[in-house]
Amino acid sequence: MSSPKLSLAALGPERLKGIRRGVEKESLRATAAGDLALTPHPAALGSALTHPHITTDYSESQLELITGVHATPETCLEELMRIHQFTYRALGEEMLWVSSMPCRLPADETIPIGRYGSSNVGRAKSVYRMGLAHRYGRRMQTISGIHYNWSMPGLGSDQYFALIRNFRRHAFLLLYLFGASPALCSSFVAGRDHGLQPLADGTMYMPHGTSLRMGRLGYQSEAQARLAVSYNGLEGYAASLQEALTRPYPAYESIGIMNPGGEYNQLATSLLQIENEFYGTIRPKRVIFPGERPLHALRERGVEYVEVRLLDLDPFVPVGIKAQTMRLLDIFLLHCLLADSPPDTPQEIAQIGRNQHLTAAFGREPGLRLERGTQEVALADWAAELLAQFDPVAAALDAAHRTSDYTDALRSAHALVEQPDLLPSARVLAVMQQDFGNSFLDFTLAHSQHTRMKLLALPFGGAQQAHYAMLSRESLRHQREIEAGDSLPFEHYRQQYISPERLGLTRAAVTPALAAV
User: Where would I find the beta strands (DSSP E) of 162-281?
Assistant: First the structure.
């Protein structure tokens, strides 16, 4: 599907200054010894169900810190810093694990699944996570990352999908530049075929890896690999997900909805239980109404922003991401929007997947070649070509903001391509070797402890502490109200939530009591 062609000159400074971004940052809670914290979500952090900025992702031990929407990278990072400061003050002796790959993990079945209270929506969130455990194992769900939410005023769904197609084609560049997970704790791959090399006792790695999180050991699924979801437009994308959300999948039918003891195994037996189960490097998104399914919101009102999902935590940065990275993302996304974006094909979708896996596992290998159409091209050459194409975008953003920060970020990216030893993935391995005997756990534990001390030492005023404490109290009150207001039996709730009508095929009324899982 063709989309209205935009030009950089036609956008103008005001549209460029209208770009908005927000961050969702996941981190495991770890003990002082580098083990997964098995304690409940700290009470001082409020309700993981209803807190606007502090929740959990898969595990009870996996925090997710969420900013609002911001006009500049600096204000976004300031809010993310404040959320971190409040969070650390509630953790006691625990710390946030600063790597995307997890700390020392216990046996798979003892990794705690997120708990959200006794309400129907809270139970549904936990049952969904139980389904993930049955389908993929719990360890895979303990990987953490950063999601970057991005929008620009005046864009329609076709333009966002054109951006998404180009993003997927060129996502290897971001994995190369910002991947920071070339090694992991061997507890993560215990008993699995993994293809990694031993580096030291308890540490496995890929010598030229960039992001094991985004490779074959990370957010991958043989079942989902069969999904060739097209991004040629909202209608085709929605139809692809509709099929995966409604058609029973034999392997998951065999798991069943409930076990013989009457406990729920999963929300549904379809290939995807809910939309969020679909793993992708980028998603089209829309803010949803209470009780609304994400796919219904997209169908009814179109794409509102995109969610970039392939960023590793930067272990060298206290909050996991820095302003320079965010500026390069702005440049990258704007270029993806403005460049020609032909329709994708099943063959190209498969090629994109192969390029992702090659870059994740071998990205820094000298001379590594990726597939581009019917040709092969050196990753470094393709990266340099793309960065050269970014020059006018960076200049336009600098002109709009009256700064040189975007050009500086682009210059830094050029340096990383020219000197791969400066890449975050290379720096992780170098510091592990120099200072920590090639131990992933020792390296990440030391950086996690340093980050904890640094953030606790920074000023955090009484007004800020009081503000976030109030949000925690309000979230707990809101959870109690939801629980008190439930009237449907949970099974009735579950069946309503997963019904095809809720996905936007019909204009059936949305039950206000139902909330998003």
Answer: 183-185, 197-200, 203-205
d(C-alpha 54, C-alpha 66), whole Å: 6
Which helix (DSSP H) or strand (DSSP E) does residue 75 occupy?
A: helix 73-90
Q: How far is CA 98 from CA 63, 103, 176, 250, in A?
A: 12, 9, 19, 38
Pairing of strands 183-185, 95-96: unpaired
**Residue-level pLDDT at 507:** 41
Rounded CA-CA distance 381/213 in Å is 24
For residue 400, tell me if it sits in a domain. Answer: yes
Q: Which of 509, 170, 176, 447 is nearest to 317 (CA)?
A: 447
Residue type, 147: H
The answer to whether the beta carbons of residues 188 and 197 sit under 8 Å apart is no
Give the closest residue to 25 by CA, choosing from 149, 162, 178, 140: 149
What was the pLDDT predicted at 511? 37
Q: Rounded distance, CA 173 to CA 321, Å?
A: 17
Angle at 247 between CA 242 and CA 253, to 5 degrees: 140
Q: Are the beta carbons of 96 and 452 closer than 8 angstroms?
A: yes
CATH code where residue 71 lies? 3.30.590.20
Task: Report residue 125 CA to chain centroid gap.
Answer: 18
CB 504 within 8 A of CB 238: yes
Q: Across all residues in the chain, what is the average pLDDT?
A: 94
Query: What is the token pair recorded at 347?
Result: 């063959």
Two tokens at 204? 């496995």
Q: What is the pLDDT of residues 143-195, one digit of tens each?
A: 999 999 999 999 999 999 999 999 999 999 999 999 999 999 999 999 888 89
Q: Which helix (H) or strand (E) holds 86?
A: helix 73-90
pTM of the model: 0.95
Classify each residue of 240-252 as buried b or exposed e, where b means 16 or more C-beta atoms within 10 Å of its C-beta: bbbebbbeebeeb
Residue 267's nearest CA partner among 510, 512, 499 is 499
Number of domains present in the structure of the chain: 1
Classify residue 155: in a domain, yes or no. Answer: yes
293 and 503 in contact (C-beta within 8 Å)? yes
The DSSP call for residue 373 is T
The predicted pLDDT at position 286 comes to 97
Instruction: Judge whether 3 lies within some domain.
Output: no
Tokens of 252: 């998951």
Supply the range of the domain harboring residue 325: 8-482
Q: Is residue 499 part of a domain?
A: no
Q: Distances from the Cα of 431 to the Cαs of 105, 167, 176, 319, 439, in angstroms? A: 23, 31, 18, 19, 10
